[in-house]
Each structure stands twice: as C-alpha cells, then as structure tokens.
Amino acid sequence: MRKDWALVATGFVLLAIGHGLGLFFVPPEAMMGETGRIFYVHVPTAWNCLVMFLIAFVCAVMVLWSGHPKWDARTTGYVEVGTLYNVMLLFQGSIWARPTWGVYWTWDPRLTTAAVMAVTFAGVMVLRKLIEDPERRATAHAVATVVAFVNVPVVYMSVKWWRTLHQDMSSPSTVDSVMHWPLRTAAIGMLLLGVGFAMVRAELERRRIAIEDEAPELPPVPNPLEV
Amino acid sequence: MNQLRWMLYKDLLIEWRGRARVAALSTFAVTLLLLFSFAVGPDTDALRTHAPAYLWLSVLTASTLLLTHGFKLEVESGAMEGLLLLPVSPRAIFYGKAIANMVLLLAVGVVALLVTLVLFDVTPRENPIWLLLILVLGTAGVSAPGTLYAGLTARLHAAQMVLPVLLFPLVVPCMVAAVRATSLVLGGDAMGQLDSWLWVLGCFDAIYWSLCGVLFGKVIG
Amino acid sequence: MDGMVVGGWEYVWAAYGLSWMALVGYTASLWLRGKDT
C-alpha cells in the first residue's frame, strides 16, 4: 500500500508542475488565447483515461484466463479510475467548448464517444454491485469490461467516418515544442496518479472480499462450572 | 455445426410454440411508434425526417423484453443446468440463442418498419430492398451482445433493469449506423454514403458475433 | 490577432479547479475507505 500511495503523491507533484508550467510559464495559444491552457489538463486526462481502460481490459482478460482473485481486484481499480478520468474529461471538454465553439455540448463524434464510454463503464460498475457470489461477480465484471473496452475503438473509428468539429488528436508533431513540457509532465503525472489510485483501490477491494469470505467466529462455549 | 442446428431448432421451436409473444412484442413496438408520433405532434416534416430514429428506438426497446425473456424459461425451470449437462458446446448454445433472437427481432423490425412507413408518411427514395438488409444487419448487431448480456444477467433479480444499462451504450455505433443508413434509403442518397454505413454495420456485427461467442462460455459456466 | 479568443481565464480556472477537486476528492475517499477496512 505504501508504494501505491507514494505513486499517488509523485503523480500529484508532477501534475502540479505540469499544470503550473502550462498555466503560468507558457505563452497563450495562437487561436484560442488563454482558454488554450485547458489543453494541459484535458489532453492528459483523455490519454490516461484510455490507458486506464486498456489496463482494465488486460486485467479482465487475466481474470477470465487465470482466475486469480488479484486480477479481479485490479480490474475493479482500473475501471473505477478510468471512469473517474472519463467523467473529468467530459466536463473539461464541455467547459472548453463554451468559449471556443459557443456551446457546452454538441453532437460531435468525439464528445459522444466519450459520453458513451462513461455510461458503458458506469454500467460495468453497477453490474459489479448487483452480483453477490464472488466468483460469478468476477467473471461477469470481467466479461462486461472486455466487451466495453472492445467497444472503445469501434466507437472511436466512427470519428473517421463522421465529420467532426473536434480537433485532430494531438501528437508531438502537431504540438509546438514549447508546449511539450507541461503536456508531458502532466500526462506522466496523471499516469502515475491513475496507477497509484487503481492499485490502492484494488487493495481495498481485495481486503473487502477477504472480509466477506471470512466466516463469523462462533460464540464461546459457556463453562458449566461457572454458570 | 450439428449442435448449432439442434440448438437453433430448440430455440425457434420454443418461440414458435409461443408465437403470441412475437405478436405481443410487435404490438409493443408499434405502440412506441405511436407514442413518438403523438409526442412530436402534427409536424409532418419532423416526423418524416426522424422516422428512422423512432423505428430503431422502438426495435431496440422491444429487444430488451425479448432478450430477458429468452433466458427466463431456462432459468426458471432449471433447464439451464440440463443444457449444460448435455455434451453441447457453450458456443453452440450461444449462436443458437443469438440467431433465434435475431430472427424474432427481425420479425418485429419488419412489422415496425411497415408501420413506420405508413404512420410517418415516408416512401423510400432508394431501392427498398436496402431497408431489409439494414434491418438484418441492425438486428444482428443488437442480438449478439444482447444474448451475451441476457445470459449474464439472467439469474439476477434486477435483470430487466441491468440489461438495458449494459446493452444500450454498447450498441450505440450500431444504432447510429442503422439510423443513418435507413435515413439515406428513405430520404435519398445523393452522395453515395450508404455503402460506408453498411460497412460500419457489417464490421460491428463481425466483431461482436465472434467476441460474444467466445465469452459466452465463461458466462453460463 | 485575427480570430483569437479573448480572455477566458474563468473557463481555465473552472476546468482546472473542478479537475483538481475531483482528484483530491477521490484521494480522500480512498483514504477514508482504507481506514474502515
């Protein structure tokens, strides 16, 4: 656990540095002015959201493949963190949309797929809450995670089919070199933060399941000589 | 392959014996279409433009009832355990169920389509045969993940609540493609976009029919 | 500059602020849940 909380702490520090650079040391963006700074919180969130769900997918496959309970705990952790980042990216994107496009929401493939993703994984979390038997729960949760994740590229591919208002995916080649540093620092920060969170959550889940499984202690047998 | 045929035969036979259920589902879908029509009001242009959306929403909603019902019989009478004891591979069980579900959903879809054409006053500008293909691809896209999730949630008390929560976000790309494609056939496809949407549906179906078959074994084990 | 969006610091603060609140809030919830088990 100590290791995982250390990851969280490191993540926060890097994120603070990245955001600090992005907010105060980098010049405003050419077209978007000061609002362009949302880039340094939004893009790392979006990237890491996908990374968290990818890791959740791998863990889910391991649940189905090996059945070792640690994979079930990890899947739970990464799904939860991924959903957290997903919700964050939706409201960041929406806030950013207001000054740049004039509306908080629009029927845009990228926004829509992010919303669909959030609802899908929220459904996976709901499913977990509803199944009591730990083995069936682990399997059902893993199956739902696998299917949900496979859906992510399917929905994302639709970006290629539809015209979109959203900017093209940022990659180092499209980003001015000055912006590299805050972006990379923030992205790595959120990655460490996400992994740290997920592992802490996984440990909590593991403990919770262990407690569930423990049979209650029998009451002590009364001594007939003392009664 | 033989196993699949027997599974399919079993499921279709069950449904044929209870074919009143298909009639009930079709009535449900038609009722939804009527509701949409009332909710939108007498604006004939709006109704015509959005008719494909109402059609597919009705089909999707009807599918929830169809899918949860499909496993209810097996779970209630303990037939699930009986099925698993037979030397039948889970994959055959899945594909049998999924195809049966698709056939039934297709039947409901055809009824809903006919009612849509009349109720919303639309005549297809492109060849109406495309509509049938879209119905086949669209219902296939709903039945594969739907059957998997129905199996997964069958034993839960809250099955009917959880199935839509799981299924609907998943079939969004399929729904959008189906609605777009239908809309192009009904409204005219000046720029030749119909093929792209059919490809999207085809790919979606290919991915989910293979993936869900593989996963089903884990679900009912 | 033509076409540049003027101002907008309030949006920037809103986006960053809400994000940090979410992250700190989640950290707190994990910490508290950890104390229970």
Tags for this entry?
heterotrimer; A: 227 residues; mainly alpha; Four Helix Bundle (Hemerythrin (Met), subunit A); C: 37 residues; 1 helix
Plain-language structure description:
The complex is a heterotrimer of chains A (227), B (221) and C (37). By secondary structure, chain A is an all-alpha fold. Chain A has a single domain (2-204), classed as Four Helix Bundle (Hemerythrin (Met), subunit A) (Up-down Bundle). Chain A has 6 helices and no strands. Chain A has helices at residues 2-25, 39-66, 69-101, 109-130, 134-161, 180-213. In chain A, helix 2 packs parallel to helix 6, helix 3 runs antiparallel to helix 4 and helix 4 runs antiparallel to helix 5 (134-161). The longest helix of chain A is centred in the C-terminal third of the chain and has 34 residues, at 180-213. Mean pLDDT of chain A is 83; it is low at 163-167 and 169-173. Chain B is 85% helix and 0% strand. In chain B, helix 3 (44-76) packs antiparallel against helix 5 (90-119), helix 3 (44-76) crosses helix 8 (172-187) and helix 8 (172-187) runs antiparallel to helix 9 (194-220). Chain B is an all-alpha fold and 221 residues long. Chain B has one domain (2-220). Chain B is built from 9 helices and no strands. Chain C is mainly α and 37 residues long. Chain C contains 1 helix and no strands. Chain C is rod-shaped, with a radius of gyration of 17 Å. Chain C starts with 8 loop residues before the first helix and ends with a helix. The model of chain C has no long low-confidence stretch (mean pLDDT 82). Chains in contact: A-B, A-C. Chain A binds chain C through residues 1, 8, 12, 15, 19, 23, 30-35, 37-38, 41-42, 45, 84, 87-88, 91-92, 95-96, 98-100, 193, 197, 200-201, 204, 207-208, 211, and chain C through 1, 3-9, 11-12, 14-16, 18-19, 22-23, 26-27, 30, 33-34, 37.
Oligomer: heterotrimer
Strand content of chain C: under 5%
* H/E element order of chain A: HHHHHH
Separation of termini of chain A? 47 Å
Mean pLDDT of chain C: 82
Measured between the Cα atoms of the first and last residue of chain C, the distance is: 58 Å
Main CATH class of chain A: Mainly Alpha
Give the helices and strands of chain C as they follow along the chain: H
- Average pLDDT taken over every residue of chain A: 83
Biggest sheet overview of chain A: none
Share of helix of chain A, binned: over 70%
Total number of helical segments of chain A? 6
Give me the CATH fold name of chain A.
Four Helix Bundle (Hemerythrin (Met), subunit A)
Class by helix and strand content of chain A? Answer: mainly alpha
Strand element count of chain A = 0
Relative helix content of chain C: over 70%
**Domain unit count of chain A:** 1
